[in-house]
Protein backbone atom coordinates (compact mmCIF):
# COMPACT_ATOMS: atom_id res chain seq x y z
CA UNK A 1 0.00 0.00 0.00
CA UNK A 2 1.43 3.40 -1.02
CA UNK A 3 2.12 5.84 1.77
CA UNK A 4 0.27 9.15 1.31
CA UNK A 5 2.21 12.39 1.41
CA UNK A 6 1.75 14.42 4.56
CA UNK A 7 0.46 17.98 4.07
CA UNK A 8 3.20 20.63 3.99
CA UNK A 9 1.20 23.30 5.84
CA UNK A 10 -2.22 23.92 7.39
CA UNK A 11 -3.67 25.40 4.19
CA UNK A 12 -2.75 22.32 2.22
CA UNK A 13 -4.19 20.13 4.97
CA UNK A 14 -7.42 22.12 4.81
CA UNK A 15 -7.67 21.68 1.01
CA UNK A 16 -6.99 17.95 1.33
CA UNK A 17 -9.58 17.64 4.11
CA UNK A 18 -12.12 19.39 1.88
CA UNK A 19 -11.41 16.83 -0.84
CA UNK A 20 -11.85 13.95 1.65
CA UNK A 21 -15.20 15.37 2.77
CA UNK A 22 -16.33 15.72 -0.84
CA UNK A 23 -15.43 12.07 -1.46
CA UNK A 24 -17.49 11.17 1.62
CA UNK A 25 -20.53 12.81 0.02
CA UNK A 26 -20.59 16.18 1.80
CA UNK A 27 -22.06 19.19 -0.02
CA UNK A 28 -19.77 22.16 -0.79
CA UNK A 29 -21.68 24.54 1.49
CA UNK A 30 -21.30 22.17 4.47
CA UNK A 31 -17.60 21.68 3.72
CA UNK A 32 -17.11 25.46 3.61
CA UNK A 33 -18.88 25.88 6.95
CA UNK A 34 -16.93 23.05 8.57
CA UNK A 35 -13.57 24.39 7.41
CA UNK A 36 -14.30 28.08 7.95
CA UNK A 37 -13.85 29.15 4.33
CA UNK A 38 -16.10 30.53 1.63
CA UNK A 39 -18.10 28.32 -0.67
CA UNK A 40 -16.27 29.97 -3.57
CA UNK A 41 -12.90 28.82 -2.22
CA UNK A 42 -14.16 25.25 -1.92
CA UNK A 43 -15.55 25.45 -5.43
CA UNK A 44 -12.20 26.65 -6.80
CA UNK A 45 -10.33 23.86 -5.03
CA UNK A 46 -12.63 21.21 -6.46
CA UNK A 47 -12.46 22.68 -9.95
CA UNK A 48 -8.64 22.57 -9.85
CA UNK A 49 -8.65 19.02 -8.48
CA UNK A 50 -11.04 17.84 -11.19
CA UNK A 51 -9.03 19.46 -14.00
CA UNK A 52 -5.46 18.89 -12.77
CA UNK A 53 -5.89 16.04 -10.31
CA UNK A 54 -5.76 15.92 -6.54
CA UNK A 55 -2.09 16.97 -6.60
CA UNK A 56 -3.31 20.47 -7.53
CA UNK A 57 -4.43 20.78 -3.91
CA UNK A 58 -0.87 20.35 -2.63
CA UNK A 59 1.27 23.27 -1.42
CA UNK A 60 1.46 26.11 -3.87
CA UNK A 61 4.40 28.22 -4.86
CA UNK A 62 4.32 31.98 -4.60
CA UNK A 63 2.03 33.67 -7.03
CA UNK A 64 2.37 36.96 -8.73
CA UNK A 65 3.74 37.92 -12.09
CA UNK A 66 7.12 36.88 -13.41
CA UNK A 67 9.88 39.40 -12.71
CA UNK A 68 10.27 41.86 -15.56
CA UNK A 69 13.98 42.42 -14.86
CA UNK A 70 16.23 39.38 -14.88
CA UNK A 71 19.27 38.93 -12.63
CA UNK A 72 21.62 40.12 -15.43
CA UNK A 73 19.36 43.16 -15.90
CA UNK A 74 19.64 43.97 -12.19
CA UNK A 75 23.44 43.69 -12.36
CA UNK A 76 23.43 46.04 -15.36
CA UNK A 77 21.19 48.47 -13.47
CA UNK A 78 23.61 48.46 -10.56
CA UNK A 79 26.50 49.28 -12.90
CA UNK A 80 24.49 52.17 -14.40
CA UNK A 81 23.69 53.53 -10.95
CA UNK A 82 27.34 53.30 -9.87
CA UNK A 83 28.23 55.66 -12.74
CA UNK A 84 26.19 58.36 -11.03
CA UNK A 85 23.08 60.31 -11.90
CA UNK A 86 24.92 62.91 -13.99
CA UNK A 87 26.35 60.16 -16.21
CA UNK A 88 22.75 59.20 -16.98
CA UNK A 89 21.83 62.75 -18.01
CA UNK A 90 20.44 64.13 -14.76
CA UNK A 91 21.40 67.46 -13.25
CA UNK A 92 23.06 66.88 -9.90
CA UNK A 93 24.54 63.59 -8.77
CA UNK A 94 21.70 62.50 -6.48
CA UNK A 95 19.70 59.35 -7.12
CA UNK A 96 16.01 59.38 -6.31
CA UNK A 97 13.56 56.57 -6.88
CA UNK A 98 11.74 58.49 -9.65
CA UNK A 99 15.09 59.10 -11.40
CA UNK A 100 16.04 55.45 -11.11
CA UNK A 101 12.59 54.56 -12.46
CA UNK A 102 13.35 56.72 -15.51
CA UNK A 103 16.69 54.95 -16.05
CA UNK A 104 14.93 51.58 -15.86
CA UNK A 105 12.35 52.77 -18.39
CA UNK A 106 15.04 54.08 -20.80
CA UNK A 107 17.36 51.09 -20.52
CA UNK A 108 14.94 48.18 -20.15
CA UNK A 109 11.61 49.50 -21.43
CA UNK A 110 9.88 48.66 -18.15
CA UNK A 111 7.92 51.06 -15.93
CA UNK A 112 7.89 50.70 -12.15
CA UNK A 113 6.30 52.76 -9.39
CA UNK A 114 8.74 54.58 -7.10
CA UNK A 115 7.76 52.16 -4.32
CA UNK A 116 8.72 49.14 -6.41
CA UNK A 117 11.96 50.85 -7.47
CA UNK A 118 12.76 50.88 -3.74
CA UNK A 119 12.20 47.11 -3.62
CA UNK A 120 14.56 46.63 -6.56
CA UNK A 121 17.21 48.77 -4.90
CA UNK A 122 16.96 46.68 -1.76
CA UNK A 123 17.31 43.54 -3.88
CA UNK A 124 20.59 44.77 -5.39
CA UNK A 125 21.92 45.81 -1.98
CA UNK A 126 21.40 49.55 -2.16
CA UNK A 127 19.99 51.27 0.90
CA UNK A 128 17.88 54.38 1.15
CA UNK A 129 19.92 57.35 2.33
CA UNK A 130 18.74 60.69 3.63
CA UNK A 131 20.86 63.66 2.67
CA UNK A 132 22.60 65.52 5.50
CA UNK A 133 20.84 68.79 6.24
CA UNK A 134 23.21 71.71 6.26
CA UNK A 135 22.68 75.36 7.02
CA UNK A 136 22.60 77.51 3.92
Task: Label the structural class.
Answer: mainly alpha
What is the terminal-to-terminal distance?
A: 81 Å
Arithmetic mean of pLDDT:
88
The run of helices and strands is: HHHHHH
Helix content: 40-55%
User: How is the biggest beta sheet arranged?
Assistant: none
Low-confidence stretches: none
Count of all domains: 2
Shape: elongated
Number of strands: 0
**Distinct helical segment count:** 6
Strand percentage, roughly? under 5%
Rg to the nearest angstrom? 25 Å
Secondary-structure blueprint:
Layout: H1 10-23, H2 28-35, H3 39-52, H4 71-82, H5 97-108, H6 114-123
Helix pairs in contact: 1-2, 2-3, 4-5, 5-6
Name a few traits of the molecule.
136 residues, 0% strand, mainly alpha, elongated
Can you describe what's shown?
With 136 residues, this protein is an all-alpha fold. It has 2 domains: 10-57; 71-123, no CATH class. Helix content is 51%, strand content 0%. The protein has helices spanning 10-23, 28-35, 39-52, 71-82, 97-108, 114-123. Helix 1 runs antiparallel to helix 2, helix 2 packs across helix 3 (39-52) and helix 5 packs across helix 6. The radius of gyration is 25 Å and the shape is elongated.
Question: What is shown here, in short?
Answer:
The chain is mostly helical. The protein has helices spanning about 10-25, 30-35, 40-50, 70-80, 95-110, 115-125.
